[in-house]
Amino acid sequence: MHFSGKGEGWVGQLPARAAPAVIVALLVLNFLVLNLLVLHPLAFHALAAEPPQSAPEDQVKAAYLLNFAKLGEWPRFALPEGPSPLVIGVSGGGEEFINVLKATVAGKMAGTHMVVVKAVSSDAEMKACHIVFFRASGRKHTQAAIEGLAQVGVLSVGEDESFLREGGMINLVREHGSVRFEVNADALDRSQIHFSAKILALAKTGYGAARATASNSPGVISPGGSLPGEDARQVQRRVAPEYPEIAARMNLKGTAQVEARVRPDGTVKEVRVLGGHPVLAEALASAVKLWKYQPAPRETVEVVKFSFGTQ
């Protein structure tokens, strides 16, 4: 790293013994900052919510792809244990993005697997990968080709509005100047590739999630039955979720969604997060665990949405 201007003069004014230590400290700090996005899972949310203005879109998308590689769990038939590489293929687009992605993954590991990048075009080349990123500028693929990837345990990632409808699993989208991701849960299930609930909770509501009841009113809970054709059970005792203090400090707003498994006697057996910021979703889940529903002949699954602070 080259220090110039005021910074260089400041170091030059330090005693001879102190100057090397200060330079080393600055180098370490710089290294940590540059690598935070791709080394720490919490950076996954930072990218989803508000990427730095100085980060070009290609770099943000490249960081997403690396995080998908590091945080996903592939079936053994697709990615056996051992030192074999985890391959990210890029379909379409130019060399510029591939170079950005290669620089992002250089030297990075996903478990025991070195992450590598290559350009792909044929079905055979795509099926030899573990992740395939379809660039919007090179859309020559068909729905059958995308769906075929799920059968061999390949994660398909796109960047246009029709991608999930065609069977894609994850789509990167721009929203209010930021890059977010949305998920086709059905396609992801078919691929047998798994991500933790905390990671999926960061996703926008994607394709296949229309079964949930929408809510646009601030502080309004929207319960709904999660099984087609089944009416929602009435809530006999409802506990409103508290707006977390940390959420207030961060000015977090938005909708959280959870799924509650309810016993025949109406008590809540367990709650699973479906979407929303993890802080808000955890607050909603904690409240719903205390709910009491009307009795029913059998155990049911209920979906609950709550909007925190939206106008």
Q: Which stretches are poorly predicted, pLDDT < 50 over at least 5 residues? A: 1-14, 22-54, 208-230
Strand proportion, as a percent range, falls in 15-25%
Strand order within the widest beta sheet: 2-3-1-4-5-6-7
User: Structural class, please?
Assistant: alpha/beta
Along the chain, the helix and strand elements come as HHHHEHEEHEHEEEHHEEHEEHEE
**Which whole number gives the mean pLDDT?**
76
Q: What is the count of distinct domains?
A: 3
What percentage of residues falls in helices of 4 or more residues?
Answer: 25-40%
Q: With helices defined by DSSP (H or I, 4 residues minimum), what is the helix count?
A: 11
How would you characterize this protein structure?
The longest helix has 22 residues, at 18-39. This protein starts with a helix and ends with a strand. It is 34% helix and 23% strand. The chain folds into 3 domains: 5-39; 53-196, 3-Layer(aba) Sandwich (Rossmann fold), CATH 3.40.50; 221-308, TolA/TonB C-terminal domain (2-Layer Sandwich), CATH 3.30.2420. It has 11 helices and 13 strands. The protein has 311 residues and is of the alpha/beta class.
Compose a concise summary of this entry.
By secondary structure, the chain is of the alpha/beta class. It has eleven helices and 13 strands.
